[in-house]
Design goal:
Blueprint lengths: L5 H12 L5 H8 L3 H7 L1
């Protein structure tokens, strides 16, 4: 997971901060664990 490009991480975090997607939704879309997204945010 740490090999993800910075741009990908930023896009996921932006989507979360916009308030339209949950950790679970983003994790499913990106194919990663919810905990990884929590760490990024």
């Amino acid at each position: 997971m740490s090999n993800r490009k910075t741009e990908e991480k930023v896009q996921v975090v932006k989507r979360y901060l916009e308030g339209n997607d949950s950790y679970r939704d983003l994790a499913q879309d990106a194919g990663i664990d919810e905990g990884e997204i929590r760490y990024w945010v």
